[in-house]
Amino acid sequence: MTSTTPPIKAPAAVETETLVPTAVGNLGALVRVPVTSHTLPGIVLVDGSGDGDRFDWGGWPQWIAESGAVVLRHDKPRMRRGARRLDRAVPGGSCP
Predict the structure, then answer these.
(1) Which residue from 27, 28, 35, 93 could staple onto 74, CB 3.0 to 4.6 Å apart?
(2) Is the pLDDT of residue 28 over 90?
(3) Could you tell me where the beta strands, DSSP code E, fall in the chain?
(4) Cα(9)–Cα(47) distance, rounded to whole angstroms?
(5) Which long-range contacts (CB under 8 A, 24 or more apart) does 87-93 make?
(6) What does the pLDDT look like over 50-84, one tens digit per residue?
């Protein structure tokens, strides 16, 4: 009996750390891009109230990328000493 090595499968998506510039400073972010030469739609995952960051999305980023969309998720803005409130820094924005 001959044993064969299974072929190495190319990744379905590539994930890269990046920064998202905002009025209150840069936010750490991850962008997940499916490996393809086609034009793709994009989705931004935005956390609601409470704790959470770019790593708290479970399998959602993977599932969405496997469905053929670029996925961006970012950390929440943190207030710095002396920083303006987010709702005043961003027109039409709101901040609890």
Answers:
(1) 27
(2) yes
(3) 13-20, 27-34, 42-45, 70-74
(4) 32
(5) 89/23, 89/24, 90/22, 90/23
(6) 778 899 999 999 999 999 999 999 998 875 555 45
